[in-house]
Amino acid sequence: MREKITAEKLLDDIFTIMQRLYNEMRSNKEKHDSHLKVFEIFAELGRTLVSADRASFWRWDKREHKLLTTAATGTQQIIIDDTTGLVGQALAENRAVITNDPYNHPNFNSAVDKKTGYVTKSILVMPVSNCRGETIGAFQVINKLDGEGFDEVEDTKRLSVAAFICGMALESDMFLADSQRDNLTELKNRFAFHSDYESKYRYKKIPMSIAICDIDFFKKVNDTYGHNAGDAVLKHVAQMLEMKTRSSDGVYRWGGEEFIIVLEGAPLAGAFIAADRVRQAIMNSVCKFEDKEIKVTMSFGCAELDNKLSVEENIKIADGRLYRAKANGRNQVIIDD
């Protein structure tokens, strides 16, 4: 017999979860991982609404054709192709998908169960849309606690409440991510740098350095080959900067032909080594545009971050050294005054 949750109990649970959400947003508004915790609370809300054992919230990366869990109870982040699994089916058909016999469902992926020993008995997946009705993710709940499986009408209706709230939150999160991304190079932009500096870099208890770099004679590239070629060079340089730095480093387009690199765990001497490695790689590379091969060099100014100084003061030091690198003949790294 299916055990019904009383309206009073459900409202009490929802109030408790929303109170947690409020407290999380209030206390962690300056932390870079606060949005992840918010989505974890949303996942908990969906799990509670339908009395499920587990819940996960999936973001759809349409550019990479991937689905990745923004929040998931009982497991680490999962990344899959957007055409696979029950989540992929829900997105492709733009409808809720329910199975109370997953091991006999053709689209069920049992890889996580095999890895963790978990036994999936029932699944409900619901697409999540933005305010324009475009599908941007999915909400998945697993294993109805009463053991009887999910109800197509009642549980779908309840989960739609959490899906609606999550859709608005995810759209806001994606809008913020887009606003921090340079459209041409797809690097993070100046706005993202300032956000990351305060939330991720400023108070780390390890040496941190920044390198401001500028493409030498970039105006000449535009004048000689045209602005489309200039855009190709900017994209080429952005790719080289990402390829030749570590995943723990941050690469940002500062503006125009100028970029900034944040080097984690690097004192000034280490910043010089890292920046010079990037400089040499760019000098030895070729940007292919139409039938042309364009070669460029870059100048760098480095500074070790001083937490006693403002972000503007730290940047001013590195920028002054970049100016010296330009004045001294370009295609070099300067780390002192």
Walkthrough of the structure:
The protein has 337 residues and is an alpha+beta fold. The chain folds into two domains: 7-177, GAF domain (Beta-Lactamase), CATH 3.30.450.40; 190-334, Alpha-Beta Plaits (2-Layer Sandwich), CATH 3.30.70.270. Helices cover 44% and strands 23% of the residues. It contains ten helices and 13 strands. The strands form three sheets. It has a six-stranded antiparallel β-sheet with strand order 3-2-1-6-5-4, with helices on both faces. Helix 1 packs antiparallel against helix 2, helix 2 runs antiparallel to helix 5 (154-179) and helix 7 (218-225) crosses helix 8 (227-243). The longest helix has 26 residues, at 154-179. The radius of gyration is 25 Å and the shape is elongated. The protein starts with 6 loop residues before the first helix and ends with a strand.
Observed structural traits:
single chain; 337 residues; alpha+beta; Beta-Lactamase; six-stranded antiparallel β-sheet; five-stranded mixed β-sheet; 13 strands; 44% helix; elongated
Write the layout of secondary structure elements.
Layout: H1 7-27, H2 34-49, E1 52-61, E2 66-72, E3 79-81, H3 85-93, E4 97-99, H4 111-116, E5 123-129, E6 135-144, H5 154-179, H6 190-201, E7 208-215, H7 218-225, H8 227-243, E8 250-255, E9 258-264, H9 268-283, E10 287-289, E11 292-294, E12 298-304, H10 311-327, E13 333-334
Parallel strand pairs: 12-13
Antiparallel strand pairs: 1-2, 1-6, 2-3, 4-5, 5-6, 7-9, 7-12, 8-9, 10-11
